[in-house]
Design goal:
The protein is mainly beta. The protein has helices spanning 2-14, 49-52, 80-84; strands at 32-44, 63-74, 89-99, 107-122, 126-140, 146-147, 150-151, 159-171, 176-188, 199-211, 229-250, 253-273, 278-289, 296-299, 302-305, 315-327, 330-342, 353-362, 367-376, 380-395. It has 2 domains: 2-211, Beta Barrel (Porin); 229-395, Porin (Beta Barrel), CATH 2.40.160. It contains 3 helices and 20 strands. Strand 16 and strand 17 form a beta hairpin. It is flat and about 70 Å long.
Length: 397
């Protein structure tokens, strides 16, 4: 639930950001609201053995379908960022998916999420557009890591929900649009609870978009030239990660047990913002990861945590380039780093690089909050970071 609460908080805050900009439309007028309903049909991506067929049903997962409904705020350009992003629509939605042929093994997820939809290119009647969704999915069936010899992909009742789609829309009349898009969807709990192999979907999507009352009248004004900004960011990002071990209950039965460990990252980044929308920079991480090299040992035929390693043995230092897409005081953060220092531990295989994808919101002039998914191999979620940060800004004179 904390995923959803945090995301809703950020987006509610973002609706009022950049309030210092002068409004050229009557501030008392309301944004146009809309309702979007959609249908998806697609494929389950075969990213691990369970969905390929190594499951109690003995069959691979193939198709899924989903229904969605969205309540949207249609921007009109009264704020500069709305014009810069092509007058986007943002709001909240609900997703109901069905894994066809699942037979009750994994469950059929229900997601509540925030979304942001904006155009690549707009014409009089047509639009090429993209959409990003981020929220919480529930209604999964909880499982242990191993049950009756099968490795399950999801161990928790709830997961994070992330989707990205792109396609084309067409104006049917003054209030109604139709669109078709390709969508990619990912479910994961960020290793807060194991198992965490995740579920990935790809689909075609058909949607109807109805605007209440009438379409917004887009306001267009001259975009002021951006004066380059520099910023120095310092943050702390705590996390929790589980580690598990397999063991034999008897000659024919294998089980697994997991344990939770703390992870804390201190990070510093220097960014340069070149435009109203884009920042580039570089930074350094110092991470204490208690799972790094941690041992799980057998005591009386039961797995137990081994003796803790020295603090310095579980410190990792990484460097990374950084990219931010700025939507007012809300930013999407993308970083890809590699470790320049970590202790070599015998028999431990660990990736040399890592990735970070997240969002953050500046709640004060210098403070911000955020949430990141830390991953490796560009596809595997490692843990979820909860971010509190501080920044200093200056301009070239």
């Amino acid at each position: 639930m904390r995923y959803l609460v945090f995301i809703v908080f950020l987006l509610l805050c973002s609706s009022g950001i950049q309030a210092h900009e002068p409004d050229t439309i009557n501030a008392k007028s309301h944004y146009r609201k809309s309702l979007t309903v959609g249908y998806q049909f697609g494929k389950v991506i075969h990213t691990h053995a369970f969905v390929k067929g190594d499951n109690p049903n003995g069959t691979s997962y193939q198709n899924f379908q989903a229904f969605s409904a969205q309540y949207g705020i249609n921007t009109d350009g009264r704020k500069l960022w709305q014009q810069l992003y092509g007058y986007p629509v943002w709001g909240f939605g609900i997703f109901k998916g069905y894994l066809l042929g699942d037979d009750g093994l994994l469950g059929n997820p229900t997601a509540i999420y925030a979304y942001f939809r904006a155009p690549f290119k707009r014409w009089e009647k047509w639009v090429l557009e993209y959409e990003v969704d981020f929220g919480l999915a529930t209604n999964w069936n909880s499982h242990d890591i191993i049950e009756k010899g099968y490795y399950y992909p999801i161990g928790s009742y709830s997961t994070a929900f992330f989707a990205f789609s792109f396609g084309a829309g067409f104006q049917i009349d003054r209030q109604l649009d139709i669109s078709t898009r390709f969508s990619a969807t990912h479910f994961s709990n960020g290793a807060i609870r194991l198992p965490n192999l995740g579920i990935n979907l790809a689909s075609a999507q058909l949607s109807l978009h109805y605007i209440f009352r009438e379409r917004p009248v887009f306001k267009s004004s001259e975009v002021p030239k951006y004066q380059d900004n520099w910023e120095w960011i310092m943050l702390i990002a705590p996390a929790v990660k589980q580690k598990a071990a397999d063991y034999n209950i008897n000659d024919s039965t294998i089980a697994a047990k997991s344990f939770s460990y703390p992870v804390v990252t201190l990070s510093s980044t220097v960014n340069r913002q070149f435009t109203h929308m884009i920042k580039f920079g570089a930074g350094i991480d110092i991470t204490y990861n208690a799972t790094y090299g941690a041992e799980i040992i057998m005591v009386d035929n039961e797995p137990q945590k081994g003796d803790p390693l020295p603090f310095t043995d579980q410190l990792l230092v990484g460097v990374y380039p950084s990219f931010e897409l700025v939507v007012n005081d809300l930013s999407m953060v993308v970083q890809s780093g590699f470790y320049i220092y970590r202790k070599d531990i015998e028999d431990l295989e660990s990736p040399y690089s890592y990735q970070r994808l997240g969002i953050k919101y500046h709640i004060l002039k210098r403070m911000f909050l955020g949430v990141n998914v830390r991953a490796y191999d560009f596809k595997k979620a490692d843990f979820v970071e909860w971010v509190v940060g501080y920044r200093l800004r200056w301009r070239n004179n």
